[in-house]
Write a structure and sequence with these properties.
Order of helices and strands: EEEHHEEEEHEEEHHEHEHEHEHEHEHEHE
CATH class of the largest domain: Alpha Beta
Strand content: 25-35%
Bound molecules: zinc ion
Radius of gyration: 20 Å
CATH architecture of the largest domain: Alpha-Beta Complex
Shape: globular
Number of helices: 12
Distance between the termini: 8 Å
CATH topology of the largest domain: Quinone Oxidoreductase, Chain A, domain 1
Largest sheet: 7 strands, mixed
Length: about 350
């Protein structure tokens, strides 16, 4: 089969010929139809310090996908051959206290598909049946291939009751834009999203009924004023990983404001803790998705009309992966879909 792999501890990726994996008794073999490129994949491609510490080549990368079950182990009852499926990319240990309590999303020893073990950028992927999610075949394949990051957005946004609240999202990357659409769909009052990249803000703008702010030439205090807001934002979704954006968010929250932190900060980003204390803010770290409550919620949101398609900027054949990674690194793209059906 074709597979996109990191072969050596150095920048780059190669399309290789690899053996089709053999499913064990509790595994599922999936024929991959579409994948989408994540920022994580770009880190692996570029071989930055995180990748150098985390990735052990040779390894097939990728974790955002949708495909069809083509074989399964004899103990698998959850899915059948022919089912259209996604996969939860965090394979949990099943042994820690949280796993035993049914809180798998809080597992302290997860293995990442396409990070710690062979991934989905291939014609076939083999993962445990416990990580396979049956999906609604009426949802477009391109959208289904983005369920992993849509899950991040959903998990971060739905930590809090959004109805009637003023929501600030820092970072208009694909996850920030999807979170904005979720906040809008969840009957938030004002939804404001910030960035310094006009291309990303243009995508956010096309999601509908969202206030976009280029913080290079407008302040959040002015934005609050122009929207008739008086006391600050009720909900913050930090999705930029930028300490300046986080500090700006904390300075613009209402008393009792609640913040989801999804963006990965460089090192030890400093904030004004007195604002957290005296303004009685709640900060919550968010990683991954809730297994499988988030999958249920995002499916229901899409079925109810949530439209994330403006975030998908490019659809490429998997053989054009190099161009896809180039686009991702340029910051001039939204989600990029790779098609594994054609020529496979
Ligand atoms: Zn565990």
């Amino acid at each position: 089969m074709r597979a996109l792999a990191k072969l050596a501890p150095a920048p780059g990726l190669e399309m290789i010929e690899a053996p089709v994996p053999e499913p064990g008794p509790t595994d599922v073999l999936i024929r991959v139809k579409r994948t989408s490129i994540c920022g994580t994949d770009v880190h692996i491609h570029q071989w930055d310090s995180w990748a150098q510490q985390t990735i052990k080549p040779p390894m097939i990368i990728g974790h955002e996908f949708v495909g069809e079950v083509v074989a399964k182990g004899d103990q698998v009852v959850e899915v059948d051959v022919g089912d259209l499926v996604d996969g939860e990319g965090h394979i949990t240990c099943g042994q820690c206290r949280n796993c035993h309590a049914g809180r798998r999303h809080l597992c302290n020893d997860t293995k990442g598909v396409g990070v710690n073990r062979d991934g989905a950028f291939a014609d076939y992927l083999c993962i445990p049946a416990t990580n396979v999610v049956k999906v609604d075949p009426d949802i477009p394949l391109d959208v289904l291939s983005c369920f992993d990051p849509l899950g991040n957005a959903t998990h971060a946004a739905l930590q809090w009751d959004l109805v009637g609240e003023d929501v600030l999202i820092t970072g208009a990357g694909p996850i920030g834009c999807m979170a904005a659409a979720i906040a809008r769909k969840s009957a938030a009052r004002h939804v404001v999203i910030t960035d310094v990249n006009p291309d990303r803000l243009a995508i956010a703008d096309s999601m509908g009924a969202i206030t976009t702010v280029d913080v290079r030439n407008a302040s959040l205090a002015d934005v609050q004023k122009s929207l008739g807001m008086k006391e600050g934002f009720d909900i913050g979704l930090e999705m930029s990983g930028n300490p300046v954006a986080l500090r700006d968010m904390i300075a613009n929250m209402a008393h009792g404001g609640r913040i989801s932190l999804l963006g990965i900060m460089p090192g030890e980003a400093a904030i004004d803790w007195n604002k957290v204390v005296f303004n009685m803010l709640t900060l919550r770290g968010i990683y991954g998705r809730e297994i499988y409550e988030t999958w249920y919620k995002m499916t229901a949101l899409i079925q109810a009309g949530l439209d994330i398609s403006p975030v998908i900027s490019h659809r490429l054949n998997c053989t054009d992966f190099a161009y896809g990674f180039e686009l991702m690194a340029s910051g001039k793209s939204g989600k990029i879909i790779l098609d594994w059906e054609e020529g496979g």
